What does this fold into?
Amino acid sequence: MGGPGGGAPEWSQDRGRREAVAMRLLRRIKTDVRARQNIETYTMAFILLLFAVVSVISDVVSEEVKWAAVLAGIGVLLYRATLPEQPRGGRDVLGDRADFDETPVPRLFDGVRDVRIFAPSAANLLSPYVCETLRTSVLQHQDARVRVVVLDPDRQDAVGIARRQLDESDDHQIQSLPVALGAVLERLGRMAGWKTPGKVEYRLFPYNPGFSLVLTDPEAWQGRAIVELHGAGRSTFARMHVDLTRERHERWYAYWVEQFDYLWETARQVEPTARVPEDS
It folds into this structure.
């Protein structure tokens, strides 16, 4: 029988929680194995588990072999204890613009079919080199899709505030946001006209929410979210970057995917223009 209000029995809820924990553990193991991390620990755990099962069902394993497995397991634990402790929070999660720039663009988009970008102007990301990389890699696949959201240039009040935040607060800024935004919009218009198997779309958002966002394959297990927090009064290259993956950071990864979905659904669609020849 169900509990008060027709809810599920407690044992069913406990089972669901145990299954969720088990699935997270399996995903973590799979991620570590792909990254070649903690391999010796997982190998020894598997061997000890195998010995434990065999010992329960039969006596085919000698005492010497059992003790050898136990001592090997202790040795692995001691080895792990001597490794330097990883910083809490992980350097693989937090960084600045320099950490992001260290990743070659072809590697960022390697094998990717779905790219989603939001930035006030996206000028730092959508350089001619990056656009060409997208054209020759991601967009060569029939089901590929590149979606970009930038500030709406017609919202001059919002652009002015964003310029004050992003340009005037950085003494080393070498480009003006309105000028950069205009150049990127022209570039996006040409990209939308490319005769590639994949598709490029872009929309215009009415204000700057204070972050930039890049998503790659957000619906796939290897999905990645890179978030840049703008802050105030700091150089572009000093801004915090958060690098999240779907497998390791489920909650906040899903949050940023939902953020882009909101931006895309509420942004203004751009009226289609005539297709621009690729050699123009």
Q: What stands out?
A: The chain has two domains: 10-82, 94-269. The two ends are 71 Å apart (CA to CA).
